[in-house]
Design a protein that fits this description.
This protein has helices at 48-59, 80-87, 97-108, 181-191, 219-225, 234-246, 254-261; strands at 5-11, 16-23, 28-32, 35-39, 44-46, 63-68, 77-78, 91-94, 122-124, 129-132, 135-141, 150-154, 157-161, 199-202, 216-218. It has 291 residues and is an alpha/beta fold. It has a single domain (5-261), classed as Metallo-beta-lactamase, Chain A (4-Layer Sandwich). Helix 4 (181-191) packs across helix 6. The radius of gyration is 18 Å and the shape is globular.
Length: 291
């Protein structure tokens, strides 16, 4: 099995990890889950994080074959469209993003929005294949965190995003609209059928106990030492995940981010004054600032 070169870029503000996955023999690479910087207080966007990825790619003499998102993110804006404008590489996400678009189209009350996935160049279904240079990749449908979550298995590496975190940090939440703890358990079990030595790259790290940020584990390590997996049944996991999710606040950028990310990383279209606006639905979800 081929071994891709993997470089992670930690986004301090959101605890997200962006990846460049390369076949060094051919000089081809993919970018996974890139972040467009956004400051919710000023409403400003910036490309500092995405530009750092481009600088890394240029410095290593790589060319971009794919810009891949694992799911529509609730905590940051995707930089997929910005990076496509700079590299010409096609964008992709899981085909079930259409169901997520339809769900949130009702919440945002968008008029004329195309809930058909046309905002991406390719929609991946379970079992679909692709390549980065000479390294083969395949796709798992990994729902639970969202309806549309997918896992990219590229050579001996799997990009699992919001399924499992590092072994000391358990698993991702499953209480977003369309989420399911039962589905998340099934998705995790499919990932853990990969060979023990498969490298697993998570999409978030919140530096458990104050340690340094880290994002690489293995199937074997997760199976043995992740407290949400080791020795657990499906019923155990669902009970644990459900109880934990009840204590978690809504991500502060969810209502901001999804209206960008369901457009494939494109900002909302400008209005007649040339300015772009985010639309926040009031009282669509329970909870107050004091909760």
């Amino acid at each position: 099995m081929n071994t891709p070169d993997v470089t992670g870029f930690y986004h301090e503000r959101t605890g997200s990890i962006q990846y460049v996955v390369a076949d060094l023999a051919t000089g081809k690479c993919a970018i996974i889950d890139p972040v467009l910087d956004y400051d919710e207080k000023s409403g400003s966007t910036a490309t500092k994080s995405a530009d750092a990825i481009l600088q890394h790619i240029a410095g290593r003499g790589l060319s971009v074959e794919w810009i891949l998102d694992t799911h529509p993110h609730a905590d940051h804006f995707s930089a997929a469209q910005y990076l496509k404008s700079k590299t010409g590489a096609p964008t992709a996400i899981g085909a079930h993003v259409i169901a997520v678009q339809r769900l949130w189209n009702d919440i945002y009350n968008w008029s004329g929005f195309a809930c058909d996935g046309s905002q991406w160049d390719r929609l991946f279904s379970a079992g679909d294949s692709f390549s980065i240079g000479n390294i083969d990749g395949t796709v798992f449908h990994s729902p639970g965190h969202t309806l549309a979550s997918i896992t990219y298995v590229i050579g001996d590496a799997a990009f699992i995003h919001d399924t499992l975190f590092m072994p000391d940090s358990g698993s991702a939440r499953a209480d977003f609209p369309g989420g399911s703890a039962s589905d998340l358990w099934s998705s995790i079990q499919e990932i853990l059928t990969l060979p023990d030595e498969t490298r697993l790259f998570t999409g978030h790290d919140y530096r458990q106990g104050g340690r340094q940020a880290t994002w690489e584990s293995t199937v074997g390590l997760q199976r043995r030492s992740n407290p949400h997996v080791a020795g657990k049944t499906q019923a155990d996991f669902i009970a644990l995940r459900t109880a934990r999710d009840r204590t978690l606040p809504m991500p502060k950028l969810m209502l901001h981010a999804l209206q960008v990310n369901l457009r494939g990383g494109e900002l909302p279209p400008p209005e007649d004054n040339g300015r772009r606006y985010l639309k926040i639905p009031l009282n669509a979800f329970s909870g107050t600032a004091s909760d």
